[in-house]
Amino acid sequence: MSTGTRSAIGGVALALCLSSAAGFAFSTGITSASFGLSGCNACHSGGVQPTVTLTPSSTAPDAGLPQKITVAVTTPNGQHAGFNLRASSGTLSVLSGTAGIQILGGEATHNYPHSEGIDGLVKFEVEWTAASGGPVTFTAWGNSVNYDGVNTGDLANGAQSDICVSSTFFRDADGDDAGVATTTQDGCTAPAGYSPNAGDCDDGNPAVRPGAAEVCNGADDDCDGTADEGPPPCQTGVCVSGACVVDAGTDGGEDSGSGSGGDGGTDPTDAGSADASDGGGDPPVCGCSGAPSAAFWVPALVLLVALRRRTAYDARPGRTGATHLRSPGRR
Ligand code: HEC
Ligand SMILES: [Ca+2]
Ligand SMILES: [Ca+2]
Ligand SMILES: [Ca+2]
Ligand SMILES: [Ca+2]
Fold first, then answer.
1. Cβ of 285: how many Cβ atoms within 10 Å?
2. CA nearest ligand 1 atom 3, residue
3. Residues carrying CATH 2.60.40.680, the chain
4. In this structure, are residues 84 and 153 in contact, taking their beta carbons and an 8 Å threshold?
5. Ligand 1 centroid from CA 40, angstroms
6. Whose CA is nearest to atom 6 of ligand 1?
7. pLDDT of 183-219, one tens digit each?
8. How many CB atoms lie within 10 A of CB 181?
9. Which of 48, 53, 99, 100 is nearest to 77 (CA)?
């Protein structure tokens, strides 16, 4: 068919397309939104099915490095073809210096029917860049057309290619999905004992990892570089490193030293108004869940004994200037 005839028919076809629905100009490209599983053959028929090959330049590319994807179509129905290529992730773009290919709705397609090369194939080359590691599926349709300006005398075929984008995985010995940056392995999917996330500051303890809840234990549970930070119960100064300072609940002598708050006497670790209901049975100063550990109880008992001694001393006749305030009713 001569170029002149093609142009005339093309003009008619374009006019028809414009009058029907915007975006439906198929000889000028099409996206998968316009076809289902039967691809281009939802509309094109009457021809012989071509062979379509889809070839990524690498089957295990690195994320961020552009790859070339080639869709090659045989031409049993003439010397022209169109195509559509989509990727399950990443970004398709037009290779610089390539004419007649566009990106529509994230998919690659022809601008006009391309003609075959000396090898009898119509080849479409597109650039694709992975966003991140993991499996990717490319789906392509190639349509061998007779170039008569209508969707008859043509037929298409599909092709699919699965690749996997390589990324770095970090050794995760404690299985908490956070690994250490010092031991890594590259691959498509995580090898056993490895995680895509780094940043574990204790790879022998699954409770310690980025994003874990910071608890009062003197350790940096969330791996942000600071131990026991954050609001109560972990506020620095309220939660003492290594143990939660809780009121025993019976006002058994925790009030000593100076400070402010509702106590008749005040805790060295008093949270101020939080302790206002003192007078026996304080709410915990530091509301830890679970029973306080030995790390709390041993020093607490030592303190208790010391305070009892001190109270006896203060109560001796002649002693006035008490060095600490006592709770009301605790004389
Ligand atoms: C929804 C129906 C429909 C689907 C799906 C469709 N087309 Fe078309 N196509 C048409 C129509 C109608 C024409 C004729 C009007 C025109 O050229 O735009 C056409 C024409 C063409 C032509 C020029 C044909 C010739 O013989 O001159 C090419 C090339 C083409 N389409 C490629 C494709 C490809 C590639 C696909 C699949 C990825 C596809 N089309 C899917 C309706 C469709
Ligand atoms: Ca046709
Ligand atoms: Ca850990
Ligand atoms: Ca921390
Ligand atoms: Ca902690």
1. 24
2. 43
3. 3-165
4. no
5. 7
6. 40
7. 999 988 899 999 999 999 999 999 999 999 988 888 8
8. 11
9. 48
**Cis peptide leading into residue 233 (ω within 30°):** yes
Stretches where the chain sits below pLDDT 50 are 1-24, 237, 241, 246-307, 310-331
Distance 242 CA to ligand 5 centre (A): 8
Identity of residue 303 = L
Q: Dihedrals φ, ψ of 309, to 5°? A: -60, -45
The number of the ligand nearest the C-alpha atom of 207 reads: 3
Indicate the fold that domain 3-165 takes in CATH. Answer: Immunoglobulin-like (2.60.40)
Structure-token pair, residue 161: 């290619």
d(CA 11, CA 13): 5
Q: What is the pLDDT of residue 301?
A: 39
Nearest alpha carbon to residue 244 among 276, 274, 269: 269
pLDDT digits (tens, 9 = 90+) for 106-158: 999 999 999 999 999 999 999 999 988 889 999 999 999 999 999 999 999 99
